[in-house]
Amino acid sequence: MKNETIHLSSLSIGYAGKSNTKVVATGIEAGINSGELTCLLGANGVGKSTLLRTLSAFQPKLSGKILIQGKDISDYTDSELSTIISVVLTEKCDVRNMTVDELVGLGRSPYTGFWGSLSVDDREIVKHSIEMVKAEGLTHRMVHTLSDGERQKVMIAKALAQETPVIFLDEPTAFLDFPSKVEMMQLLHRLSRETGKTIFLSTHDLELALQIADKIWLMDKTNGLMIGTPEDLSLNGSLSNFFARKGIVFDRETGLFRVDNTHTSELRLVGHGQKYSMARKALQRNGILAGRSVESSFFIETGELKNTEYIIHPSEDESINVASIEEMLEVVEKYFKTFGENNNVGDNDF
Amino acid sequence: MKRHTTLIMLLIVASIFFFFLLNLLLGSVHIPLLSVCNILMGGNEESVIWENIILKSRVPQALTALVAGAGLAISGLQMQTVFRNPLAGPSVLGISSGASLGVAFVVLLSGSLGGVALSNLGYFGEVALSIAAIAGALSVMALIVYVSQKVKGNVTLLIIGVMIGYVASAIIGVLKYFSVEEDIRAYVIWGLGSFSRVSGDQMMLFVCIMAILVPLSFLLIKTLNLLLLGDGYARNLGLNIKRARLLVITCSGVLVAIVTAYCGPIMFLGLAVPHLCRAIFHTSDHRILMPAVLFTGASLALICNLIARMPGLEGALPVNSVTALVGAPIVASVLFRKRKNELNE
Predict the structure, then answer these.
(1) Is B238 in the A-facing interface, judged by CB distances under 8 Å?
(2) What are the C-alpha distances in Å from B80 to residues A95, B9, B151, B227?
(3) d(CA B298, CA A250)
(4) CA B202, CA B189: separation in Å to the nearest integer?
(5) Which among B225, B228, B238 has the least Cβ separation from residue A110?
(6) pLDDT tens digits, residue range B65-115?
(7) Count of CB contacts below 8 A, A vs B?
(8) Which H or E element spans position A9?
(9) Who among B221, B239, B278 is closest to A97 (CB)?
(10) A106–B229: do the CB atoms touch at under 8 Å?
């Protein structure tokens, strides 16, 4: 069941100083649902961290309302909040001589007694939390020997052990290699579905967020905050406006971004399937716009899908067979060097 | 794992008893073990001189060393955790410098202004020294606590502490410059540290104060465990960071102040013992570390006292030199071994 667990109305965030107040963002109206993965995207310095810190009650809001489960955040005491919001921070937790088990166990602190000893139930919850992030193999490892990805998983297990309906994560995918990033996002998405928790995170990994997140928050200096599913945001043009910069193109067909390579020459490319799109991609990277619709006497056939061969048809000479895209690129490059630019657009030699 | 820990803990406790007894046995005057036992049991057969040596000198000295070592080690552990810095120790925050400043004021000024050399005042002088040291240490600590509520970063606070220490040393330097030679000598001797200065009633007072303060510091175990995670996570787990810092620094500061007042500034014990315990027990959990540093600190202080009073030596070595000679290699070797372990893992 989806419920709005967090509601923001006319919220202003920033830093209140004695003489001058620095407003980072203002007039934020939004809601975050339970059982969903919500990703906050925005350029550096736009206020993602400030927003996250304000929502986690690490710093006071300037004005407006933050309602968590219908109650204003400032009406909660510190110990109440620790059972409602858990966080995973960017700062590396450089604790030494502590096992994963013990670290996740500290997540139970809001519930444990004076000495912080874990009961049988607490131990069960710790074990279950570690299982949920699939880190059973790490249970007895020392935290400082873990890789960045493993450590991040363990911190998420700590957040789970805290048993809060809301989890905030500040750039959980930073410092990770690509497969770990994907694993991390899928893990969080799965957790939001399985546990019905409200999971809200900030990230710079645009592509991943667009593919995995349920809701996207776009934070921008000029347009303010835009919220929606990735698909809605791409249809209404918010996404392409948002990242309208030189060198980035929003591909409306796939709903993803790609790097825009400007081209200097054009080339006819015949074929289909994966080989066709790969050859096209490689040529595009080298500044050559290739495709079925381009007309040129010099053309390339991608051939059958069974083998890796490509057939190059120069305008005068015999056709050449090459075994890989790398070789194809070499031939094409040589060709353009000798014949220069006069062989591009609309060649009418025949 | 758990049984292992208990076993080591028991061994350390046993070592305290062993070294305590050794402290009573060894010294410049040879007293046989049987006689020592007899005197401790309250027997009257032994010579009065031996009785006096044991009851008026060796027992108070050993008790002082035991209690001071425990207090300094706990204080060091608390400082290292709250500042998340392996080099933090009781002397780093300028608290012992504060005590030195207090003592310097009394010792050096009483001579040049009052015309009375404090060293000639006997018992009254001793009490005045303790009071001056506590006053100096607590006022620096109050300053640090005040600053800790104002600044955010731990490193900033640590640097301010170090700066306060420098200022205190500078003032002491100026005071020394204007003092008479005997007073400077008295001050320097105080600064070398000693477990034998405390005598009779004062020793009882010292032990009683520490017997109250040390258990009190155990109340902060959960707080310290949370602080290990860093301010952000600790706060998210419901810890009030400002209050936690206030409590830990106050507790640790008071412990240092009292020990310094009675024994002079004892270096390195507070820094070395927590490192040693982490290396022995392979844990950062304060539920284990607290009792561990308490016992290890007591045991190590007894060993240092033993070395300082090595049999066959005229008089005694300054305790401060011994603790530094024992402590520095411990810290270095622990850090060195840690490096090697990390490479292997």
Answers:
(1) yes
(2) 12, 21, 18, 11
(3) 69
(4) 19
(5) B238
(6) 999 999 999 999 998 998 888 877 777 778 888 888 998 888 877 765 555
(7) 76
(8) strand A4-16
(9) B278
(10) yes
